[in-house]
Specification:
With about 60 residues, this protein is an alpha+beta fold. The protein has a domain of about 40 residues. The protein contains one helix and three strands, in the order βββα. Strands 1-2-3 form a three-stranded antiparallel β-sheet, with no helix packed on it. Strand 1 and strand 2 form a beta hairpin. The longest helix has 9 residues.
């Protein structure tokens, strides 16, 4: 995959867990994994994730 970011990083359903053995997770599919969730979904279904939902951007402070 190279140095590209996982598409999950921009998804609102993506979570980072406190479990060192399973650091990544997906709220929609309710799982934790060692791999990025998009890889797990692709390996299981052969399709890209149908529940990708863009994360809302951070609001900038007033006056900036």
């Amino acid at each position: 995959m190279g140095d590209r970011k996982s598409p999950c990083v921009g998804c609102r359903n993506y979570i980072i867990t406190y479990d060192r053995k399973m650091p990544y997770g997906c709220r929609v599919f309710q799982f934790q994994s060692r791999k990025s969730p998009h890889l797990v979904v692709y390996e299981a279904s052969g399709k890209t994730c149908p529940f990708y939902a863009k994360r809302a951007g951070k609001k900038s402070p007033r006056g900036l």
